[in-house]
Amino acid sequence: xxxxxxxxxxxxxxxxxxxxxxxxxxxxxxxxxxxxxxxxxxxxxxxxxxxxxxxxxxxxxxxxxxxxxxxxxxxxxxxxxxxxxxxxxxxxxxxxxxxxxxxxxxxxxxxxxxxxxxxxxxxxxxxxxxxxxxxxxxxxxxxxxxxxxxxxxxxxxxxxxxxxxxxxxxxxxxxxxxxxxxxxxxxxxxxxxxxxxxxxxxxxxxxxxxxxxxxxxxxxxxxxxxxxxxxxxxxx
Length: 236
What we know:
- It is a single chain.
- This protein is mainly alpha-helical.
- It contains 11 helices and no strands.
- The longest helix is centred in the last third of the chain and has 24 residues, at 211-234.
- The relative contact order is 0.11.
């Protein structure tokens, strides 16, 4: 028996283990992300370092241009107020536990993080002020439901769920337009990435994404990132 076959057999045995299945059912990625977000917020309050955390981690174009590339990632975990973290935390948990169950832990983590990064890249290109929050990634999760609606449009339940999230997206963007302090560009960037990323990372093995859709989604993501990065780095 080849090494690959042995590994497949071992994986099958582990997957069928009752303890493994019980652990696998726990949305530990969603809960872990929430734990990190809460820790960062509470740590800032307890140590009186909230301003420093925001200053060193929020998305702010001039500092990214200066070389602080980590600001594409760190804003996902930084929140500016209790209401900010409360609303994002509720949204993340409600949506996250559903999508983590559908896509699996690793795929979900990749989609969440890359949606947030792409949202921050869009904000880097077109927003002048500082911004922070997990909402870029959460809008990406909203976009995933639109992808599911497109992929499983023959399934009435999935289609209705996708339509509900489309209404939620429209309402949120409408709210963004009335709130000048909100980085609407980052939200839209996360939404676009969240719609396209599942085509690239794929669904569980029993569902196959057509290869042309995978290639098209990957090309659009690359062009989108290149355009936003070039615009941001050459902006005044």
